[in-house]
Structures are given as structure tokens and as C-alpha cells.
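Researcher: I'd like a candidate sequence for this fold, 543 residues long. If you have to choose between options at a position, lean toward the conservative one.
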């Protein structure tokens, strides 16, 4: 039987709600108010007050063993999923769950505190070909669990967390296979639906007992306090005004009808259990059954009044006494729960640990060779297998190197032409082929610019020939229409060619406030004489 390690020790039962914390310790109980920030976290003053109050209630001395606690948290921020996974061992199941949680939930597994419970017959085999296993997984933000665990750990308590909605289900008398449990609070309610004994969904409804009082106040145009008094008088039938009683009843039906509409689509089965710490739970069960109709049974689960006594804490105690809490879904932080971190081993455990370490340190030199021999054998096998991969890598490298050396330098040619172009130049067409033939057609400002452009192409070192095929002035004598053909060098002649200047040259040119053209060195710029005046069209010329 699964008992989570504290079946034979003293156990606390705690419910942490939105506005209160209830503790049941044997026959003693405690109820504390909670104050929260806008993001739902507890305020600093509330944490200090909770720590002092719990320490005073438990009266635990420093030498006493740490207490264990089953803690039920509310459904706000909790996601519930039913997953189907292949059959696997315990280690494989944890890995599969991490992958499924990362896909199903909006946060990464490292940011969540989560737990799971197997569904179906526990006697069925969990491993085997073609077998499946059904799991119920619940997850919540890790900081929610760690906030509560930090407070309880400081009070000397090791907590395990589950859902209040699941704990309340344990209080339902003889539940059918499919049913619904609705816990009504002052300002909100929690709804959990169970189908064939398996929780399928959990919701937080923005409806509470105060909604009925507000409806009466809005209908009669009275204060909230006066509406509460009229409601109590109407339920006790002490009001003599029949018209007033009918108005109050109509306002009550209006508020309860809103609740019925919110839960009607989530009903499972024909029975609804109603829990909560409100004094009119039985009347609300009757009203809700009438609003829902369709023969639905609505049964109120009455809890004897007293601090620390709620459907959740009593459900935790009942599950703990019956099967050690194995029916509960335990939520833990997978990177080391605060409850686990707070456990202090007994002195005899320290002695056993020291003896184990001493024996291990003496036997390690002899055991090292035996333990590492299989690992070394596996490494040798892997090295032999990797030799075949090196041959394949070498063939692929030669193929890629051949592609690199044999590919035409289209981009290099375009880059050099762009860098050699001066302002006022316009190209109408540019063609290149794999044989290295380049043809340009466009217009330039004058013949001097044509000569400079040709000189720069030759100085780049990429082209073996650059020929000005045509140089004709435009009718308005403003520009010169040119047609140029060129032939780039073969691959062996381009191997030492560097299209981009080295980084040091770039830095020097930037420091001097000038930019050097790619492929043209500083010495060549200084020694190259000025180009002559515009000349008549040139014929085929080779450098």
C-alpha cells in the first residue's frame, strides 16, 4: 500500500484556500485568514503571521521529529489533463511525462510543480508490447507550491500537496460512477466533474453565497447588510410581508439560476454533491436542484462546525485512514521539494553514512577496474565504429571542396563591377555565363569615366581581358553609351585573388577617413597615373 512514508507518524491535514487556511490536528483545529497581493501571492505580513500562528498551534520543540502534512490547495491556476502513454518502466515513464507536459501545458516542466496518478485497474501489467496506460496529471506554477512549503517547512512540517477538489470527493457518501462536486464559498466556487470514477475537469466559478445577498440588495435597493437580514428572515419564515417574501425568493432564484447555467454544461451523471462552509447549504441544494431540473439529484454534504473542519481536511483524513492517501494525486516540485529539503536525518543515519563512505573509499581502487571495464569496452567499440564515419566525412569534404573551386565567380564579378562604378553610371544589361564571358551595356558620364571603369576592372585581377566594344555619345552629348565585354580568368588563376580587403586594411582606411576599393591596394592608388582625357572608342585591348 502506498502511504507516502508517514502512515505510522503523526499527520496534519491542511486546506489552503483563497482567503483562509484551515488546519486539522487530531481533534484540534485552527483557521487563519489569508491576505494576498494582486498576483495571488501571499503578502509578507501574512507569511509572518501564518508562521507565528502555526508555530504556536503546533507547540513543536526543536528536538521533536518533524511533522508530516497532507495539504490541499485550491483549483486556481491548476491544470488537469488525462494522458494516454505507452506502457513503460518507472524511469521511462518519468521521461515520457516530461515530454507530454512540455507539449500539453503552457509552461515548461522546470517552471511547474506537477504530479500524476495512474487510472484503471492497478493489478493490470504496466509493461508489454502494445499496452497503454492512462494517467491523470495535475500541474501548477512551482512558486505557488514553494511559497506554502517554505512557510510549513519553517514550522517544522514536511508537506505533501494535493487538490482540495479531489479531497472533497472522498467525503461524498456512496458516490455513483459519474458525479459532480460543487464547493460553494463566499465569493467563488470550485467544480470538479468525475466520469466513471475519474476526474475529467476542474473549474473555478466566480459565484459564491454572497451572490444571493447581492441579488436581493439590488432587487430591493437596500444595503448589503440589510439584504442579509431579510434573507435570513425569509428562510426562517419570520417575515409577515408576503410580497416582500416573494420578491426575496425571486431574487434568490435569479442568483441560483446563474449558477445553474454556469455548471449545466459540465454535469456528469445524475448526482451533484454540494459542499461548503455556508449555513444555508441544504436550502441551496434544493434551489439548485430545481433550477437544474432533468431529475438531477443535488445532495448537500453537511460538515459539523468547528475550526479546521472542512470537506477538504476531513476528506484528506478519510483517505489517509483508509489507504494511506494512495487515492490522492500528489503534486511535487521535481527539482527538490521544500518538504524534502527540510528533512533532517537521525544521528544513526549519519553514522551509517560515514561507515558506508569509509568502506567505499577503501574498496574503490580495487572496484574501479571491475566497474569501468564494461565502459572501456563500449568506448573501444564506439571508436572502431567511428572510423567508418571518417571515410564518409572525407568523401563529402572533397565533394564540397570541388564544388567550391569549380563554381563560377558570379558574385565576385558583380561585386567588382559595383565597386568600380562611379556616380552617374547606369547599366541597362549585364550577362555572364559559366565560360567566363561577361557583357555590359549602359551609359556613363564621359569617356574619362569609361577609361577609369575599364582600368579598375583590369586592376581587380579577376578579368584576363576587358574590351570596350562601343563608345557612342548620346544625341544631347550629355552621356556616352558604352558596350563592354570581358573574360574572367580560369579557376587556377583566381586562387590567390582576394576580393575582400583584409581586416587590418579596412581598419586603417576607416581611421584615415577613406575607403579603399576592394582588390585595389594603397600602393597601386598612389602610383597609378591620372587617366587621360576622353579618347575615341577603343578597340579590343588586352592587359
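Model: Candidate sequence:
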Amino acid at each position: 500500500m502506498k502511504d507516502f512514508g508517514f502512515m505510522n507518524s503523526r499527520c496534519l491535514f491542511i486546506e489552503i484556500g483563497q482567503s483562509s487556511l484551515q488546519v486539522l490536528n487530531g481533534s484540534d483545529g485552527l483557521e487563519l485568514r489569508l491576505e494576498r497581493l494582486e498576483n495571488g501571492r501571499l503578502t509578507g505580513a501574512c507569511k509572518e503571521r501564518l508562521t507565528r500562528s502555526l508555530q504556536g498551534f503546533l507547540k513543536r520543540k526543536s528536538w521533536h521529529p518533524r511533522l508530516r502534512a497532507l495539504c490541499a490547495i485550491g483549483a486556481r491556476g491548476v491544470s488537469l489533463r488525462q494522458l494516454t502513454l505507452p506502457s513503460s518502466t518507472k524511469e521511462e515513464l518519468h521521461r515520457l511525462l516530461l515530454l507530454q507536459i512540455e507539449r500539453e501545458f503552457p509552461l515548461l516542466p522546470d517552471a511547474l510543480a506537477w504530479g500524476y496518478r495512474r487510472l484503471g485497474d492497478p493489478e493490470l501489467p504496466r509493461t508489454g508490447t502494445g499496452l497503454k496506460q492512462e494517467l491523470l496529471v495535475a500541474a501548477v506554477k512551482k512558486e505557488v507550491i514553494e511559497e506554502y512549503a517554505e512557510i510549513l517547512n519553517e514550522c517544522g512540517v514536511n508537506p505533501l500537496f494535493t487538490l482540495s477538489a479531489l479531497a472533497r470527493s472522498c467525503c461524498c457518501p456512496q458516490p455513483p460512477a459519474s458525479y459532480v462536486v460543487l464547493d460553494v464559498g463566499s465569493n467563488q466556487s470550485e467544480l470538479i466533474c468525475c466520469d466513471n470514477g475519474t476526474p475529467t475537469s476542474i473549474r473555478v466559478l466566480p459565484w459564491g453565497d454572497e451572490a444571493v445577498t447581492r441579488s436581493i440588495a439590488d432587487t430591493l435597493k437596500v444595503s448589503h447588510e440589510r439584504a442579509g437580514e431579510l434573507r435570513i428572515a425569509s428562510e426562517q419564515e419570520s417575515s409577515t410581508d408576503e410580497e416582500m417574501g416573494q420578491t426575496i425568493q425571486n431574487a434568490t432564484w435569479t442568483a441560483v439560476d446563474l449558477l445553474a447555467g454556469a455548471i449545466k454544461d459540465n454535469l456528469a451523471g445524475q448526482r451533484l454533491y454540494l459542499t461548503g462552509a455556508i449555513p444555508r447549504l441544504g436550502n441551496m441544494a434544493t434551489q439548485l436542484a430545481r433550477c437544474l431540473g432533468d431529475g438531477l439529484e443535488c445532495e448537500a454534504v453537511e460538515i459539523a462546525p468547528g475550526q479546521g473542519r472542512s470537506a477538504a481536511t476531513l476528506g484528506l483524513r478519510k483517505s489517509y485512514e483508509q489507504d494511506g492517501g494512495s487515492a490522492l494525486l500528489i503534486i511535487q516540485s521535481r527539482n527538490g521539494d521544500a518538504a524534502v529539503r527540510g528533512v533532517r536525518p537521525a544521528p544513526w543515519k549519519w553514522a551509517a553514512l560515514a561507515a558506508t563512505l569509509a568502506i567505499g573509499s577503501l574498496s574503490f581502487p580495487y572496484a574501479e577496474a571491475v566497474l569501468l571495464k564494461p565502459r572501456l569496452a563500449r568506448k573501444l567499440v564506439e571508436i572502431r565504429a567511428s572510423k567508418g564515419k571518417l571515410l564518409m566525412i572525407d568523401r563529402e569534404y572533397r565533394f564540397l571542396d570541388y564544388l567550391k573551386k569549380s563554381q563560377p565567380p558570379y558574385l565576385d564579378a558583380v561585386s567588382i563591377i559595383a565597386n568600380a562604378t562611379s556616380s552617374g553610371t547606369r547599366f541597362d544589361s549585364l550577362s555572364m555565363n559559366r565560360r567566363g564571358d561577361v557583357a555590359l551595356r549602359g551609359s556613363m558620364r564621359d569617356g574619362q569615366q569609361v577609361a577609369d571603369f575599364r582600368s579598375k576592372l583590369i586592376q581587380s585581377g579577376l578579368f584576363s581581358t576587358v574590351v570596350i566594344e562601343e563608345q557612342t555619345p548620346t544625341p544631347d552629348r550629355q552621356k556616352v553609351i558604352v558596350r563592354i565585354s570581358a573574360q574572367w580568368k580560369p579557376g587556377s588563376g583566381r586562387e590567390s585573388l582576394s576580393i575582400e580587403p583584409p581586416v587590418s586594411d579596412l581598419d586603417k582606411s576607416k581611421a584615415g577617413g577613406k575607403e579603399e576599393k576592394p582588390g585595389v591596394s594603397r600602393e597601386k592608388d598612389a602610383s597609378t597615373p591620372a587617366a587621360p582625357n576622353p579618347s575615341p572608342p577603343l578597340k579590343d585591348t588586352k592587359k
